[in-house]
Amino acid sequence: MIARILKIAVFFIILITVVWLSAYFTLTFIIKSEDTVVVPELVGKDVVYALEILTDLGLNTKVKGSEYDSQVPTNHVIFQEPEPGTEIKKGRDIRIIISKGARTILMPNLKGLALQQARIILEENDLCRGAISSTYIANVEKDDIIEQAPAPGAMVQRETCVDLLVSLGVRPQAYQMPDLKELSLDEAILLIETSNLVIGEIKSFYQQDNPKNVVIRQEPLSGHRVIEGTPVNIMVNRKPGRKGQGHLNGAKGVGLFRYRLQNGFLKRRIRVCLNSFGVANDLFDDFMKPGAEIWCLIPNIDATVLLYEDDKLVKTQVFDAW
């Protein structure tokens, strides 16, 4: 009886051992059958090359960061994990650190470059933009770099701030502000434009003791020094209101400006400019046939409409908000 029990026990032990060995070898075969690759050497290689080779091997690239390294050029790998020669399965991650190059570099030459181009070069070299000063200079284009500090070729640390002196171009011509008082609006605008100044804000204010429809105030004042392109604000002695404004019936807050070209044979360039609160906008700018008529709708704002025929001012009309 005991011998029989021992035989049965030995049989079960042998059976369990066979099952365990079968499972072990089956699992080992399945694991070994999975695709595995050997991690290549990436340190010192260009990051683009590293990405391509890892992608071809079916591995994922994870960039852990970037560091300065005087021995490894910019955008090259300085560290990898796992190490080269390690056997891993496809689809695993390879972690790398990229070089930002040496911490000290030669200062690039920015002189003569446009400001926008200089900013790009500074960013590419991990340099920051410092103070920007500007001055007029005749032989350097506007927005080009005149001088820089630190000077070109100096050995500097990355993240150093660079101060720039930028050109404003040729110094504008200076003039003596003409006297616009007691001139009509058309005469004042013509004098402003021929003096290389620009029309600023045009306002209306009525003074009973002064002549009507003439300039009673100006800014800058006459005799002051001004440069070309300076806006000139003027005030005209007139009663504000709707009379003569040509407002459309049934159209609230809309005025109408009309102009008919004289008869002739050649087309003329017509430009209609709306000046309101010192800001000028073109309502119309095109060539028109002789005898044609132009209509422009004017919004409910204080504004002055200027009409130019072949760049010559031929008509002005003031519109008041109502």
The sequence of SSEs as H and E is HEHEEEEEHEEEEEHEEEEEEEEEE
The amount of beta strand, in percent, is 35-45%
Head-to-tail CA distance between termini: 124 Å
Q: Which structural class matches the secondary elements?
A: alpha+beta
Q: What spatial order of strands do you see in the largest sheet?
A: 18-17-20-21
Oligomer: single chain
The pLDDT mean sits at: 85
Number of helices: 4
Proportion in helices: 10-25%
For the record, the CATH class of the largest domain is Mainly Beta
Unreliable stretches covering 5 or more consecutive residues: 247-251
Computed over alpha carbons, the radius of gyration is 41 Å
Inertia-based shape:
elongated
Largest sheet: 4 strands, antiparallel
CATH topology of the largest domain, anyone? Immunoglobulin-like
Q: How many domains is the backbone divided into? A: 4
**Proper CATH architecture of the largest domain:** Sandwich
* Total count of strands: 21
Walk me through this protein's architecture.
There is one protein chain. With 322 residues, the protein is an alpha+beta fold. The chain has four domains: 45-102, 2-Layer Sandwich (Trypsin Inhibitor V, Chain A); 104-167, 2-Layer Sandwich (Trypsin Inhibitor V, Chain A); 174-236, Trypsin Inhibitor V, Chain A; 254-319, Sandwich (Immunoglobulin-like). The protein is 19% helix and 39% strand. The protein has four helices and 21 strands. The protein has helices spanning 2-33, 47-56, 115-124, 185-194; strands at residues 36-38, 60-67, 77-81, 87-89, 93-99, 104-106, 128-135, 145-149, 155-157, 161-167, 174-176, 198-204, 215-219, 225-227, 231-236, 254-260, 268-276, 279-288, 293-299, 303-309, 312-319. A four-stranded antiparallel β-sheet has the order 18-17-20-21, with helices on one face. A hairpin with a 2-residue loop joins strand 17 and strand 18 (279-288). Residues 247-251 have low confidence and may be disordered.
